[in-house]
Amino acid sequence: MTTTILPGQTIGIIGGGQLGRMMALAAKEAGFKIAVLDPGMDSPTGQVADIQIIAPFDDQQALEELADVSDVITYEFENIDVEGLTKLAEIAYVPQGAELIRVTQNRIFEKQAILEAGVIVADYITASTFKELTEKRSELSFPFVVKTARGGYDGKGQQTVSSIDELHLAETLFENGECVAEAFVSFKKEISVIIQRNAHGETAILPIGENIHKCHILHETIVPARIDKKTMDLAKQAAEKIAAHLDMVGTLAVEMFVLETGGIIVNELAPRPHNSGHYSIEATNISQFHQHIRAVCGWPLRQPILWSQAVMVNVLGEHVAPLTTKIAQFPNWSIHLYGKDEAKQKRKMGHVTILTEDLEATLSEIDTSGIWSE
Fold it and tell me: Into which family does the record put it (predicted)?
């Protein structure tokens, strides 16, 4: 049995970052109230919430307090204590449950789930210790990428190994526990497919974005992705299979590699709204945040329509000052800053979305603006 949450009721959000903030703003447009649990006194979500609970994410008393004030609870990031979330689901309405978090927190569980869904991943091996990796490394050809099974983001917690002589570079990763080594994929493009699903099993997929990274951090998302229809169909089918297998509710971002053949290999999953979907605030008839709220509240989903080609570009700490000095020069840019207290190097502080009739001209405009120069 599913529950429908109506305007005037309260949505609890675990996590006070920018994703929670954009969820909260979307929910408030429909008349919902927002409660947020975050250890920060002035979190981006806390700035727009009706109720702030300031405590660590694994604080059971704080989770119970969130349950008391919320009619439904969602989350904006995946590094949540699974045991705490499981207990929370016993006393509160958490339509996404804890299983999706358990699977996506661990790269080994994640790869197993993707394969069980009938979708291809890169060849990989698992190892509990560095010694085990050295014993099993002949099962993969060089180069391969060693990643911690848990934790790690924006390139952290991983090491590329190009030869037997470089194998030692991965040894420190095992200080964090079990690791997975993945065959290096020679890919043509990276794309992400954001699929959203409500408790009735109704799904919707955002227009597919093409992702450009710099220093392992997402730099730009280009929409629509510059791929052919066959690849687009394969990508959507893969996302649908994974979402159905996981019986997920809410939002799932499926990051994929596009091969020279046009085939796809799934790289990783994120069980929440995703950086690569920010363009949807301006460029589609339903943003990923509005759709996420509909999904967790048991509302029917809207089928996304792309109004315009678009480029989303991330604003890191080092970009804030040059961006703010040039706002007047680019009236066609939609600027989003997240309200974070300190503009640290490589920290995601905001993003810019540009609707365009000429993608190449817009990409050139971004480069020549000087804001994102190295």
Answer: Belongs to the PurK/PurT family.
Of 80 and 151, more confident: 80
Q: What pLDDT was estimated at residue 11? A: 98
Q: Does domain 123-183 have CATH number 3.40.30.10?
A: no
Q: Which amino acid is at 277?
A: G
Q: Beta strand pairing status for 189-197 and 203-205?
A: antiparallel
**Which burial class, exposed, middle or buried, applies to 329 when counting CB atoms under 10 A from its CB (0-12, 13-18, 19+)?**
exposed
At the topology level, CATH places domain 10-94 in Rossmann fold (3.40.50)
User: pLDDT category, 151, cuts 50, 70, 90?
Assistant: confident
Greater confidence (35 vs 2) lies with 35
pLDDT one-digit tens code per residue, 253-272: 999 999 999 999 999 999 99
In this prediction, residue 370 carries a pLDDT of: 96
Q: Which residues are annotated as a binding site?
A: 107, 147, 152-158, 182-185, 190, 213, 267-268
Question: Cβ distance 290 to 135 under 8 Å?
Answer: no
Q: What is the largest CA-CA distance in the chain?
A: 61
Find where tokens 């470089």 sit: 166
The span from the CA of 272 to the CA of 96, in Å, is: 10
The class of domain 189-368 in CATH terms is alpha beta
Q: Which segments are annotated as binding site for ATP?
A: 107, 147, 152-158, 182-185, 190, 213, 267-268
